[in-house]
Request: fold
Amino acid sequence: MEHSKITRLKLKNFTAFEELDMEFSPGINIFIGDNGTGKTHLLKLLYCISKNTTEIVNNNSGEFEKSLVDIFLPYERQFGRLRNNKIEIGNTKNNELRADLTFKFNDSNPSLSFYIHNSNRLLVSSNLGGHNYEVFNSVYIPVKEFLENAPGFLSLYDKREISFDKTYADILYSSFLPKKRSLSKIQENILDEISKIIGGRIISIRENFFLEDKEGLQTEFTLLAEGWRKLALLWLLIQNGSLFEEDSILFWDEPEANLNPKMKRLIIEILLELQKNGVQIFLATHDYVILKEFDLQKKSKDKIKFFSLYRDNEKTIQCKSSDDYLMIEPNLIQETFLDIYDRDIERALKSIGRGK
Reply:
């Protein structure tokens, strides 16, 4: 099987973005930025494209458009609402919504594009046909851990219109996959490390997930801390092979959510191990500890790229990137952390002065 990585994304008039051009690492790609700068939109778009490359290759634009709508949930499922809301729809010269994605496969750079121009009809073009590298094993982990909501959700989602985007259904489908017949030593080691922290292994009974300890005691996920459930999700995805394959791409929105800071070190260790084994990773974070753990744990062979999304003086979203944590600009997360540190020192000095 031939595999590829996502190498470049160019956007025009898509949701919050007027124009954007990003070149990605084959390893870990980290999006930071203020609220409203489009980090989650980038994750969802990249996930949707990688999840639907087969439909794109077969020129099934209708199925791809449905997937975009299912993931972004625009009002009344109108695909045209994914245009940047700053543009004038009547201006046919400038109102085109467009996305261009490039992959890396051996010495070639296959690409795909989708766009809408005057109408709200989605048009797709690509040069991916005739190869197997269009098949990705894509996993998207939403901000909210969702395994506790598993019982009955998938059957409800398939039959009713409910306001949950498709990433929630997809992560459950991935979680319910059975264990792989054989696991590598590295996979076994990661599973053991997670099991030590959460105190057991994960089982499912009639769509309910349980943590089972060494004595066989089973605790339902509704009674577990959300941070443990997040680690349990990783345990499942690694155990069933959804993560840890060379064709795997992981998209993770705010991995720090509901995690105690001491657990974040293990999360970064796992992510670095995944990229060493061929998994491409895209994540969005607001967390200083997550960023600093990447900085402290990174080795020379690790492939990590940071993307800082920000608004310029015209309120247009721009992006700067760096392979070096210290060169991220702007870095609102670090600036805020340093501001808190300075204020804490200032208060301590004032307290000492009053004591005198």
Observations:
- The longest strand covers residues 5-14.
- The chain is about 35% helix and 25% strand.
